[in-house]
Amino acid sequence: FSxxxxxxxNGKKVPPSGWRCEADGCDxxxxxxxxxxxxxxxxxxxxWDGSGGNSHGVEHHGKTGYPLAVKMGTICADVAxxxxxxxxxxxxxxxxxxVRDARLVEHLAx
Length: 110
What we know:
Elements: E1 32-35, E2 41-43, H1 56-64, E3 68-71, E4 84-91, E5 94-99, H2 104-109
Antiparallel strand pairs: 1-2, 1-3, 3-4, 4-5
């Protein structure tokens, strides 16, 4: 998906701090994912034990089909250490896996 990733020119910029899930009524400030297509900043999945996010990133993918997101807090100079998730790919029948984005620096600069 990284080679053909659509990135919207919507002028959206992510602040350097003070992150919060953009979904209406969500107060999550941790476990946030930056969608690389439209810049949406949304919380991750709810864990099996009820902890974690409210799955707003997953819901956003279901509405838009935008496949790639980067976990906030993992963005650093070591590109290989950055967590990139593809909502569109499957592994062993489970949707959504960690992937490598060969154009990640370019995508983050957008």
